[in-house]
Design a protein that fits this description.
The complex is a heterodimer of chains A (107) and B (115). Chain A has no helices and 9 strands. Chain A has 107 residues and is mostly beta strands. Chain A has a 5-stranded mixed beta sheet, with no helix packed on it. In chain A, strands 2-7-6-5 form a 4-stranded antiparallel beta sheet, with no helix packed on it. Chain A starts with 8 loop residues before the first strand and ends with a strand. With 115 residues, chain B is mostly beta strands. Chain B is globular and about 40 Å long. The chains are: A mainly beta (107), B mainly beta (115). Chains A and B meet through strand 4 and strand 8 of A and strand 5 and strand 10 of B.
């Protein structure tokens, strides 16, 4: 039974902003939303985490609405090197990663 | 700055054999996690430790799997009587004390092939 839901894949072009949405309907009050990036044959890499509203760091922004049932990872001006799988992780029930979104950035 | 290290990086074994993997977390990270990942799927949680205590264990972790973290430093994951379905990438991650497990740093993984 899936705990988070993301689009299977997305295509984008270099220089565009990419928004990836994750659904987590059963998120608990104290849980955080965390996003990871994974390249082939490597372990996932932490990108950003948040609890509510908006969080921004040097690589991405994370938007979480008031009901916290979804979140959106925003990648500004993507490049070819951003081609990877992105996972939304809702920290509840044993750190469930979900299926991830394969982002393909085209030149 | 050394990251999470895992050994071996690759392991090929015959069905029925036992294998053991080692994970060395980032020093002073008190939490350590084990995941399993198969091709095209996200990492699947197996178990995690806070210091030397094993706090959570997935139901997917059958009695053939056991993990230890003596002295709260490195950890080992042992699989007994391996089966072909155990073929996967085994990932280890650690997180610092003040991050509540949200910010995990992953190692390169150990790829297991059971023939």
């Amino acid at each position: 039974l899936a705990k988070t839901t993301q689009p299977i894949s997305m295509d984008s072009y270099e220089g565009q902003e990419v928004n990836i949405t994750c659904s987590h309907n059963n998120i608990a009050t104290n849980d955080y939303i965390t996003w990871y990036q994974q390249f082939p044959s490597q372990g996932p890499r932490f990108i950003i985490q948040g609890y509510k509203t908006k969080v921004t760091n040097e690589v991405a922004s994370l938007f979480i609405p008031a009901d916290r049932k979804s979140s959106t990872l925003s990648l500004p001006r993507v490049s070819l090197s951003d081609t990877a799988v992105y996972y939304c992780l809702a920290i509840f029930n044993k750190f469930y990663f979900g299926s991830g979104t394969k982002l393909n950035v085209k030149p | 700055d050394t990251g999470v290290s895992q050994n071996p990086r690759h392991k090929i074994t015959k069905r029925g054999q036992n294998v053991t993997f080692r994970c060395d977390p980032i020093s002073e990270h008190n939490r350590l996690y084990w995941y399993r990942q198969t091709l095209g799927q996200g990492p699947e949680f197996l178990t995690y430790f806070q210091n030397e205590a094993q706090l959570e264990k997935s139901r997917l972790l059958s009695d053939r799997f056991s993990a230890e973290r003596p002295k709260g430093s490195f950890s080992t994951l042992e699989i007994q009587r391996t089966e072909q379905g155990d073929s996967a990438m085994y990932l280890c991650a650690s997180s610092p004390r003040d991050r509540g497990g949200y910010e995990q740093y992953f190692g390169p993984g150990t790829r297991l092939t059971v023939t």
